[in-house]
What we know:
Its EC number is 2.7.1.26, 2.7.7.2. By secondary structure, this protein is an alpha/beta fold.
Amino acid sequence: MQVHFGASAARPSACALTIGNFDGVHRGHQAMLACLRERASARGLPTALLTFEPHPREVFARGNPPARLATLRDKVLSLKATGLLDHLYVHRFTPAFAALSAQDFIDQVLVAGLGAQYVLIGDDFQFGARRLGNFSTLQACPHFVTEAMPTISVHGERASSSRIREALAAGDFAHAEALLGRHYQLTGRVMHGKKLGRTLGYPTANVHLPHRKPALAGIFVVEVDTAAGRFGGVASLGKNPTVDQGDDYKLEVHLFDFAGNLYGQLICVRFLAKLRDEQRFDSLAALTAQIDADAAAARHHLSTLQRVSA
């Protein structure tokens, strides 16, 4: 899969295209990409996805952006893992771009920019200024064939990014995993932090979060993929109210039975279960006692998983 950034990126002379944010790349998205591959193969065309960064809702709701399921890096990795896309186009979403009329979007982006000959969209897709473009608008374009993908249901429920956000926020990982088709995960680079954890006996990897509002918060059982292998651990994702007063979310991960330096490395944190909500403690001693309990609970959960899979 080739990844292209910007409107001036090199493009194929023709493609079968789908469009959307694809936040989380859930089972509905995966089904759409499989359908796109089938239609593209029948026409002898490469497959392509046009997606946007930042998420359009972040542009329109700057003061209160919605939670993001995936960073751009995680989205790219998940799309690549499907093996169904030849090209991914990441278009910067700005107020000027949002102001394009539906017809200008078709003419400038889909036809002149990407050479679309076949377009597959969700049945509720809207685009252009004031979201006036829809399936009928695309279907009227003579330059490409347009089809709508029906809703994909998992156990009778529509697979959607919003429903996954709700499940993660509620700590219902089984539900989120059913809709995603995999464990929920975040990938990020380990950065230097306050190094308080090591003074408490729990050194942590501080993972950079590029977005202001993650889809979940609390204390979690995790598995972490690193250059040195996979390790179980316990993670805190939140504002760390005992030692910090700010509003920034932080992902701090303690890896069990690990000794080494992760600074600057990319790690993938896979969330397996929620232990509890984040809370403020009156002292570092109380915080340490709770971390002891969290670590013990996480180790027990991981050992139970190993016995089940054995």
